[in-house]
Write a structure and sequence with these properties.
The chain contains eight helices and seven strands, in the order βαβαβαβαβαβααβα. By secondary structure, it is α/β, with parallel strands linked by helices. It has one domain: NAD(P)-binding Rossmann-like Domain (Rossmann fold). Helix 3 packs parallel to helix 4 and helix 4 runs parallel beside helix 5. The longest helix has 30 residues. It starts with 8 loop residues before the first strand and ends with a helix. The C terminus is likely disordered.
Length: 273
């Protein structure tokens, strides 16, 4: 399908790499005017150039740390000033922090600031304009690990759990204003995000392969493009009667048992019998 988002205005946070970048490019291909939000000016300008070269429309106004309320509000104001509306917010900004160079308290504070407070600030920055329009779509990014962790990541998963709570509360409250709010829960999606957790190499590849084979029913890790499709669904009229949904985009994780898990469960039952 083409032009599913024709002439709509979309703000995409975390758009300078990984899932956010894939979503921004997908929206632009479907006719949206896309505002790129990220911290790296160099990466953002590259993405703007790539979208423009493909005939799309993209803007980058300034470097943004979403944990800084004034910075995200400034981008929203510039978007409204130029385009007069905001139809879509796809909030994919997120980050983990290295416990080796920070204390536990510092990791907790910074992780919460970016992943929980940043999501809150971002959503509530666009809501006044969406209320004025009596329409809007908000897509929040959580994580499969918030409630189905494959490894402990306490601070990050706590913050992502809060994002799911924000999703259902906003969906309930904003429905009367014509604003739909939904959430994507990615599983093991291979993006630069993993670079902050583990250096790329044989060890990481073996770990991801192991996760896929044991825990993912589709038996593979995901790509950023695997997430862009569901993000397009939530942003388009295909989901016009959907709000408050937290959707796993994880190759079956969260919904069904993987082969390895099924075998373990079967053996466990057999042993008890």
């Amino acid at each position: 399908m083409v032009d599913m988002l024709k002439d709509q205005v979309a703000i995409v946070t975390g758009a300078t790499s990984g899932m956010g970048e894939a979503v921004a490019k997908c929206y632009a291909k479907e006719g949206a005017k896309v505002v790129i939000v990220g911290r790296s000016e160099k990466k953002a300008n590259r993405i703007v150039d790539e979208i423009t070269a493909e005939g799309g429309v993209a803007r980058f106004y300034q470097s943004v740390d979403v944990s800084k309320k004034d910075q995200i509000e400034a981008v929203v104001a510039k978007t409204i000033e130029e385009f007069g509306r905001i139809d879509i917010l796809a909030a994919f900004a997120g980050q983990t922090f290295d416990g080796g160079s920070m204390s536990m308290d510092e990791v907790l504070v910074r992780t919460t600031e970016v992943n929980q407070y940043g999501m809150y600030y971002t959503c509530f920055a666009v809501i006044p304009q969406m209320k004025k329009q009596k329409s809007g779509k908000i897509i929040i990014c959580s994580s499969n690990g918030a409630f189905n962790p494959t490894a402990p990541a306490y601070e990050y998963h706590m913050a992502k759990g809060a994002c799911e709570s924000l999703t259902v509360n906003l969906a309930m409250d904003m429905a009367k204003h014509g604003i739909r709010v939904n959430c994507i829960k990615p599983g093991p999606i291979v993006t630069p995000f993993w670079d902050e957790l583990m250096e790329d190499g044989p060890e990481r590849q073996a770990m991801l392969k192991g996760i896929a084979e044991v825990e993912v029913p589709l038996q593979r890790t995901g790509t950023a493009e695997d997430v862009a499709g569901p993000a397009l669904f939530f942003a388009s009229d295909l989901s016009s009667y959907v709000t408050g949904l937290c959707m796993y985009v994880a190759g079956g994780m969260g919904y069904v048992y993987a082969y390895g898990q099924s075998s373990i469960a079967h053996n466990s039952v057999a042993t008890r019998d």
